[in-house]
Every structure is written in C-alpha cells, then in structure tokens.
What we know:
By secondary structure, the chain is mainly beta. Helices cover 0% and strands 49% of the residues. The strands form 2 sheets. Strands 2, 4, 5, 6, 9, 10 and 11 form a 7-stranded mixed beta sheet that branches. A hairpin with a 4-residue loop joins β7 and β8 (77-82). The chain is globular.
Amino acid sequence: VQLQASGGGLVQAGGSLRLSCAASGRTFSRHAMGWFRRAPGKEREFVSFIDWTGTSTYYADSVKGRFTISRDNAKNTVYLQMNSLKPEDTAVYYCAAHDTYSGSVSARDYDYWGQGTQVTVSS
C-alpha cells in the first residue's frame, strides 16, 4: 500500500481544513487507517484512527469534538476534517495504514506511511 497525503496549508485559528490520504493497491479496504502528527521540536503523536469498515473511530483527547476521520473505500481514500483549528494543531500530518481490522494509537503498529502534509495555524 502506498499512501499520498494532501490538503494541508495555512489557516487562521478557528478555521478548517480537510486532509486526504489516497492509497494505492486493492487491499485498502482491509486496512485500518490512522492519522498522526509531528509538531516542531516534539514527538510524533496519535490523532485519530478508523477501522476498515469505517464504523469505528477513535480520537486523541486534544482533537476530540473538532476533528472527524472518515473513509471512502470505493475511492481508496481516508479523510481528516479539521475544524476549530488552534495554533497548537500546527504540525506535519501523516496518514498510516495498519494491516488489520482495527486501528491503534501506537505508531509502531502501522505498516505503511504517507509522506506528510504541513498544517500551519496562525493566531
């Protein structure tokens, strides 16, 4: 599985962005998908995951209620809708695929990674 993240950019605090992660390969629907981020000078952190059917999702406390993860298996794409953005959301965002039904909050469990897309939120 190859992953290509897009949709990042510069937005003012309170604004919204939608990230997309397009996957190649016929097995996308058999992978749970996750989003992680790395802010400057910080460790990579978990943001959200979605199971391979799209029925189960999980969020980090820091984004709960503001971000929504979804997927379209027909388009081999997972999305991260980000609303009410804050300057502390500034980071490079990565999508990742986990070769099993359910996602994980641990980056080490993911088998494939996209290249990252920069999100910058100005105050």
